[in-house]
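Annex B. Sample input.
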Amino acid sequence: MSEPGLDSVQLHGYVQRWQAGDAKAADELFRAIGHRLENLARRMLKSYPNVRTWADTSDVFQGTVCRLLNTLKKLNPPTTRDFFNLAAVHVRRELLDLARRYRGKIQAGGDERFAREPKAPESIAPAELELWSRFHEAVEKLPVEEREVFSLVLYHGWPQQEIADLLDIDVRTVRRRYTAASLQISTLLGGQLPEM
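Annex B, continued. Sample output.
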């Protein structure tokens, strides 16, 4: 299952035009996939409480778009599926960088000059922030197949049957890969998992 209105041929066309220097191609691409990418950023941002205090979905979305465009200058994902996997990687990296940047501000009590709008104070323990960062770094370390399934479930919010259809595998394989990913993450975090 791919984004409606965007198949792999269209995606290749946008990316090839972007690589050739056509700035309009990037605009057209992000008009075609912007809604899905913004939803992905919103969904993933929920699991970064330290970043939510300082940045909103549009900040994460814009940072991700910049990262993605830089990558697309060098490579053309072979399928729409590969494109969205790449997008999830860039959202995760953007959030990890923001989490590292804001970690000190949370521990020091924060600085309102950096806040986009007044937000209710959140009592987030530095240990919980560290655990979330370690959790997302652990996702990056998963084998490709497990990471792809785990990301589609956790970050994209896709049902297992849709994932099976997208990957052209049995839904039991989706469950196995998700379970394997969950166990590996738990092991990497020493059994400590952030509250979801």
